[in-house]
Design goal:
Uridine Diphospho-n-acetylenolpyruvylglucosamine Reductase, domain 3; 13 strands; 11 helices; 2 domains; alpha+beta; globular; five-stranded antiparallel beta sheet; 33% helix; Enolase-like, domain 1; 275 residues; four-stranded antiparallel beta sheet
Length: 275
């Protein structure tokens, strides 16, 4: 690790870390003079810490997909990894790479955001932790400095009576997301929505939370009319673009549909329904 961080410090922005290479070796960004292969570092793990989790940055998406540790609310990570491209890609792509590529469509970003996860970052100057919601800055831009590396994702314990859900629409079953949505919903003893997180991907320059939709649900007893209103609020809050994959209008409509589906599924799971 020290050698890796030393290389980053010496080369600054002209060095890029390569692990699975499923994004970097396709994009081939300009200005890169050297690649630092980190596959031998001991950062491939999923560990329970109390009731929370630590996931090493080199953990592959297929490892997440097959993990027996990811049960209960954190099963949303498995749900997202299961629709993360083709299995050949999942066996190479890492959770750290998916986050550090910082594209709006990153499938692991939204489920980790609703779980209140954080990015643990290291450099020769020391270590720091950044809430994942603050990690993404713009398209392909994040909070990492030129001499820093993401080493771990930390997921805190989840409250009782919490349900989660993830959904995605792509051009094909193995394509990147046109829209993805993740929801975490916690019920109180009286079945009132005590807390909720709604994260949306591929509808803004970064993965984003829908504060308006969350505010409509929090503190209320949920019914279909209220959930429809929240899905509409998410629809109105997003800022999608039109590109070769989809129109902005389609992304808006798809976001509203997926938001409703995920809220309903998370609510059912919070009530103890089937996964």
């Amino acid at each position: 690790m020290e050698e890796t961080l030393s290389f980053l410090g010496d080369h600054g922005g002209s060095a890029k870390i390569v692990a699975g290479g499923t994004d970097l070796l396709v994009e081939k960004p300009g200005g890169v003079e050297c690649l630092i292969d980190v596959n031998s570092l001991p950062l491939d793990y999923i560990k329970e810490e109390g009731e929370g989790l630590r996931i090493g940055a080199l953990t592959t998406i297929e490892s997440i997909n097959g993990s027996e540790i990811l049960t209960g609310p954190v099963h949303v990570l498995t749900e997202a990894s299961n629709v993360f491209g083709h299995r050949n890609v999942r066996n190479l792509a890492t959770i750290g790479g998916n986050l550090c590529s910082s594209v709006p469509s990153a499938d692991m970003a939204t489920p980790l955001m609703v779980l209140d996860s954080s990015a643990h970052i290291a450099s020769l100057r020391g270590e720091r932790t950044v809430p994942l919601e603050e990690f993404f800055v713009f398209v392909r831009e994040n909070a990492l400095e030129a001499d820093e590396m993401l080493i771990e994702v930390r997921v805190p314990p989840q409250p009782p009576r919490t349900g989660t859900a993830f959904a995605k629409i792509g051009r094909t079953s193995v394509d990147i997301a046109l829209v993805n949505v993740a929801v975490r919903l916690t019920l109180g003893e009286d079945d009132v929505c005590r807390d909720v997180r709604i994260a949306l991907g591929s509808v803004a320059p970064t993965p984003m939370r829908s504060a308006r939709a969350e505010g409509l649900l929090r503190g209320k007893r949920l019914d279909e009319a209220l959930i429809d209103e929240a899905a509409k609020a998410a629809f109105e809050e997003i800022r999608p673009i039109s590109d070769v994959r989809s129109s902005a209008e389609y992304r808006r409509d798809a976001c509203k549909v997926l938001a409703k589906r995920c809220i309903l599924r998370a609510l059912e799971r919070a009530r103890g329904g089937p996964d």
